[in-house]
């Protein structure tokens, strides 16, 4: 009976971890951005990118929860500074997307080669900018670090907490993969003009998100050092 109760507690804790991480990552909100960046890719390449993004996000979430606070402490970096730096990166990505045109030679060349990406190129592009900063950005990392900051220090409890964090992150990564993999259907439904409108809208929203993240970091810094 005690074993059954213990199993229930463990499952409930894993589900709570998943419930805490899923809104932070927000795969549904990230899907339009993923679509905008992969609109020229073949379905096979897009599916490979979706898988790599899910794997990258899993390790980024888990690493942030388990060792993120220690890394920041070692380098003397505060969470507000992470928000400002990450927000600047997000805003810069949105600015580039907003000012990219079909007449841009680099953009056209990338579009022509998108269907012929090697495995190494898929791995590279799946991390930046799709995984970071668009999917698991500075806000996600800061929140994950905060979730793992109060991890127990005893070895046994730490291992149990690490297992729970890993399972929660794995569930989020699975949802991320399934949502991104099936996002190509949205592109076919939108058509060429709808996709173009969506890209510009998402680019502007991304620029605003980056500015908002920077503003939040600046406000936190002012609160810490009035």
Task: Describe the 3D structure.
It is a single chain. It contains nine helices and no strands. It has helices at residues 2-25, 27-37, 43-75, 79-98, 105-113, 119-135, 138-148, 155-181, 184-224. Helix 2 crosses helix 8. The chain has 226 residues and is an all-alpha fold. It has one domain.
Helices and strands in order:
Blueprint: H1 2-25, H2 27-37, H3 43-75, H4 79-98, H5 105-113, H6 119-135, H7 138-148, H8 155-181, H9 184-224
Helix pairs in contact: 1-8, 2-8, 2-9, 3-6, 3-7, 3-8, 4-9
Number of domains: 1
Poorly predicted parts = 103-112
Nearest-integer average pLDDT? 78
Number of contiguous helices:
9
Order of helices and strands: HHHHHHHHH
Fraction in beta strands = under 5%
Coarse shape = globular
Q: Which secondary-structure class do the elements indicate?
A: mainly alpha
| Rg calc | 19 Å
**Ends: how far apart?**
55 Å
**Beta-strand segment tally:** 0
The largest sheet is: none
Portion in helices: over 70%
What can be said about this structure in brief?
It contains 9 helices and no strands.
């Amino acid at each position: 009976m005690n074993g059954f109760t213990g199993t229930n507690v463990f499952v409930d804790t894993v589900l709570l971890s998943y419930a805490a991480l899923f809104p932070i990552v927000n795969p549904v909100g990230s899907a339009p951005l993923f679509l905008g960046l992969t609109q020229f890719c073949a379905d096979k390449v897009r599916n490979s990118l979706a898988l790599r993004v899910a794997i990258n996000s899993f390790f980024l979430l888990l690493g942030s929860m388990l060792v993120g606070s220690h890394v920041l402490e070692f380098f003397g970096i505060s969470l507000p500074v992470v928000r400002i730096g990450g927000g600047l990166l997000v805003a810069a990505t949105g600015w580039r997307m907003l000012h990219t045109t079909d007449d841009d030679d680099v953009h056209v060349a990338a579009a022509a080669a998108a269907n012929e990406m090697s495995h190494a190129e898929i791995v590279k592009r799946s991390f930046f900018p799709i995984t970071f900063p668009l999917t698991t950005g500075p806000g996600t990392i800061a929140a994950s670090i905060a979730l793992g900051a109060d991890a127990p220090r005893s070895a046994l409890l730490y291992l149990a907490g690490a297992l729970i964090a890993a399972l929660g992150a794995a569930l989020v990564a699975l949802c991320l993969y399934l949502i991104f993999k099936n996002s190509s259907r949205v592109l076919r439904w939108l058509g060429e003009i709808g996709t173009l409108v969506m890209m510009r809208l998402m680019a502007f929203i991304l620029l605003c998100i980056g500015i908002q993240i920077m503003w939040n970091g600046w406000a936190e810094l002012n609160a810490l050092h009035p």
